[in-house]
Amino acid sequence: MTENRPGYYGRFGGRYVPETLMAALDELDAAYRRYATDPEFTAELDDLFHHYSGRPTPLYFAERFSRELGKGRIYLKREDLNHTGAHKINNALGQILLAKRMGKKRIIAETGAGQHGVAAATVAAKFGLSCTVYMGEVDIARQSLNVFRMRLLGAEVVPVRSGSRTLKDATNEAMRDWVATVDDSYYLIGSVVGPHPYPMMVRNFQAVIGRETRAQLMQAADKLPDYVVACVGGGSNSMGIFHEFVAEPAVQLVGVEAAGEGLETEHHAATLSKGEPGVLHGALSYLLSDSDGQVLEAYSISAGLDYPGVGPEHSFLKDSGRVNYQAVTDGEALAAFDYLTKTEGIIPALESSHAVAMGMKLAPTLTEGQIMVINLSGRGDKDIHTVAQSMGVVL
Ligand SMILES: Cc1ncc(COP(=O)(O)O)c(C=O)c1O
Questions:
Q1: What whole-number distance in Å separates Cα of residue 124 and Cα of residue 84?
Q2: Helix ranges, 195-302 (H)
Q3: Which of 9, 18, 227, 331 fits a disulfide with 313 by CB distance 3.0 to 4.6 angstroms?
Q4: For 153-183, how does the pLDDT look when each residue is reduced to its tens digit (9 = 90+)?
Q5: Do 130 and 144 belong to one domain?
Q6: Which residue has its alpha carbon closest to ligand 1 atom 12?
Q7: Cβ < 6 A, ligand 1 pocket
Q8: What residues act catalytically?
């Protein structure tokens, strides 16, 4: 647990929100604390994880991938095999159960790659709540498949035309909606970002990834991993797998940001590698900003990593040195996408491909018997058009 006082991770986190939201955040915090340890709530969530989402997801030994890259053993945590195709459903299921118990009638969500939007629309359909998803116009264009899925699921998808027309702007609009409708609407945030209690709550709903990984690896190899590698957008799949191992100093944790066209250019989304502390979407954290403190536009080929902020706990883990944050370019991610597809028959999401690319860089340094776990946060079906475009192929 790196939360030193409620809502803070070192100096990061907090609640930088309009007065109108303070009561709603207190209500949410109280509901979360009440239900997080309620046996009926946790049993219902476990049941949904198992029967609806398909958990536990496999911890798969990528034998060919490992053998071709070096001496170590590389395992993939298969979050791509969850219902709806990514880890986002873990958090969406947890939060919808809270929304129901809090008597809310409507769900608001923001989305970048569309995976969280699909997860929110899915759980809203299952539990009979209405759902409005805010999505930047740029992301709508590159993730049209997920937009159609959300609409099929009965959600209203609202195009956001302000700013960079990506995830940051969609989050602004979702928060604006929430301020105006806070009595009957529940804001279902999709990552470990936003004001307290969201970063803590989303991490805890995602922590099932790390718990399963530890148990599965103990069974398969009777040891802890030497490395755990995960991509970082807002930071939920990485916090979800890291949380279990933060207190295990022998486990090296590697977070992978998007270096886009290169860290030396202005076109990247490497918030922790290149940002400065600042406030975005209700929390103090690292942020891509200019010398006046204005938020800069982020860029990545991967819509889910294209965000100028990051969860506050990651900022703390960077400053404390517990997690090693690296960045991977679009080109390296595309090469890793291709390599994993061809060596293992698994098509990863472009977000997850960033973690795979980092794994490929680390693999030659592994010695006999060392183990690396890569969190495969999602499947690549949603990215086929982007990949085809990058290859000059018209579908
Ligand atoms: C498959 C996948 N992985 C990773 C991410 C990045 O989000 P986070 O850093 O919160 O896990 C996304 C976001 O949309 C995603 O769809």
A1: 13
A2: 198-206, 208-221, 236-242, 271-274
A3: 9
A4: 999 999 999 998 999 999 999 999 999 999 9
A5: yes
A6: 304
A7: 86, 112-113, 115-116, 191, 231-237, 304-305, 349, 351-352, 377-378
A8: 88, 110, 377
